[in-house]
Amino acid sequence: VTPRTFNLALVGFGNVGRAFVRLLREKEQRIRDEYGVAARITGVATRRLGWLANPEGLDTAALPDGRTPACVKCAEVREWLRAARAGVLLEASSLNKRDGQPAIEYLRAALEHGAHAVSANKGPLVFAYDELRALAREKRRRFLFESTVMDGTPVFNLFRETLPVAGLRGFRGLLNSTSNVVLAEIEAGRTLAEAVRRAQEIGVAETDPTDDLEGWDAAVKVVALARVLMDAPLRLDQVERVGIASISPEQARAARAAGKPYKLICRAERRGGTVHASVRPEQVPLTDPLASLIGTTSCLHFDLDVFGLTLIEHKPGVEATAYGLLSDFLRAVREPEAL
Amino acid sequence: VTPRTFNLALVGFGNVGRAFVRLLREKEQRIRDEYGVAARITGVATRRLGWLANPEGLDTAALPDGRTPACVKCAEVREWLRAARAGVLLEASSLNKRDGQPAIEYLRAALEHGAHAVSANKGPLVFAYDELRALAREKRRRFLFESTVMDGTPVFNLFRETLPVAGLRGFRGLLNSTSNVVLAEIEAGRTLAEAVRRAQEIGVAETDPTDDLEGWDAAVKVVALARVLMDAPLRLDQVERVGIASISPEQARAARAAGKPYKLICRAERRGGTVHASVRPEQVPLTDPLASLIGTTSCLHFDLDVFGLTLIEHKPGVEATAYGLLSDFLRAVREPEAL
User: Fold this and answer.
1) CB of A267 within 8 A of CB of A206?
2) How far apart are CA A97 and CA A84, in angstroms?
3) How are beta strands B4-11 and B37-46 bridged, if at all?
4) What are the backbone angles phi and psi of residue B68, rounded to the nearest 5°?
5) What is the pLDDT of residues B10-63, one digit of tens each?
6) Residue A203 in contact with residue A260, Cβ under 8 Å?
7) Contacts of B165 in chain A (CB under 8 A)
8) Which of B307, B314, B323 to mutate to test the interface with A (most CBs of A within 10 A)?
9) How far apart are CA A262 and CA A245, in angstroms?
């Protein structure tokens, strides 16, 4: 059987983009066998290289070396999507927490072009979820974003595909690795500055860790989850937000010693007609599985009306985010199941 | 829009069957709105009442009181499926760990009749998975069994729907409530006999707890998971199986005091071409989320090639199992998604 071949256009070709291409190659045979699907990268866009397209497939192996593969260079996203004859956009640009741009514009352009739009970026969920969802419906294409929260772990697809008509009352989780690593380093005796440096050394914290330490990154995730899973029109400024810097090293160590360590806990809860949400350091007893989670491990607990369900993603690397993109791609293009 | 109406036939009308009917009623509106589906119970079979059918819908409210609703009484399963004009069989008979009967025969009859076959029973997965799967394909119907492991928590549907082309290297979990409750009671100072009585009082252990205490129930779950998720032709007698009675109360208490309590751990692991599986008490450090799980809470950790994923189901009641049946019903009858 000839597979249906899809042209993929990638915005961003850093660690995630490269891991995605590796994973795609690694899983090529299973994707063909199980989904009847083949994929080729026909567009890559990065800040450094610009908008590169080749509808016959780009030699992505050349890109990390700075060599330019055979391609056309486009001026902007729409021209690029056309030149790449893109069937699916995979967008992994970095988060702009003020307005979600330029990711929103890329996703909009992809859907208007007639491509499925897959994003690893939380911004569009916070600032343009309704619009992009409506546009995707109108164009009969998919807007998917599994890797925005907990990387490759199914969260959005979990509800959409495997928890039909379940009622979600609220959730609670540990969603920011930097805060988790920094708190653990402080408990181990380091100062805040030393702990941040350590988190940067192991590749968890960014050069400017402010968004993580002040709880912005976690708050954005809370809004994305509440927006999509609880259908709550929650704004970022409505999330009560306290970062881990509000805890002194002495408090952190005393709490750990007392068996109730601090964790940066994300919460959302339906009360009456509205959803209340917060991100703040909370003390967690050791009997709570959350208390023992370390490093990049993340966790979400869902309070469903039928039972309670916790997901823990262990030590995800960049390939976990890449897997989130891959699973969205397959979700977007898979045929309705033959019974 | 007129909903598509499905006739449901239930084998078993104990706690699970009744909870299913309650849940169906509670979720009726959402099922109609979100899936365009309506359901009515047209068949109920219990050991006491026999095979009752009414193609216009049975008054299930009468059944728990022993009143007989307007219906025909059939002699056996095939006649009953015809009389009920069953579109979906929901089978929640009790486990026979030797041969999986009569559940297998009921599921076979349903598929041959042209109905979807949904089972809450692990036996058919251990003894007839290949056959029932092939029969379902041939008849273009579904054979689904989400509630057999971890009740309502998506495990099988999780892999089928949300973890495409992920490689499963192995899993590890806590899947038997009775063993977990009994161990906790022993740690708290009770004898094995007292602990079992306590587990029976709170409705966790059955009158004859042998299958749980000897690890049979957990081993059956391991085989079901390995069979379906790892495509491994594992037989029940190939699972290394040691029950919690092998641990003396003194050992259990000493291990807890030392911060490495015993848990009845289920394992399967792919090594070379084969899957090795075991069920046995293992000591778990307190830093492992498994160590803190109590009561009926169950847990599965999946070692995927892209990341590690743990699911914890908190204190499920009978409605969690009923939800597993409901989610399978909706999975079976939902239309291919309109893009």
Assistant:
1) no
2) 29
3) parallel
4) -100, 120
5) 999 999 999 999 999 999 999 999 999 999 999 999 988 899 999 999 988 887
6) no
7) 27, 30-31, 34-35, 326, 330
8) B307
9) 12
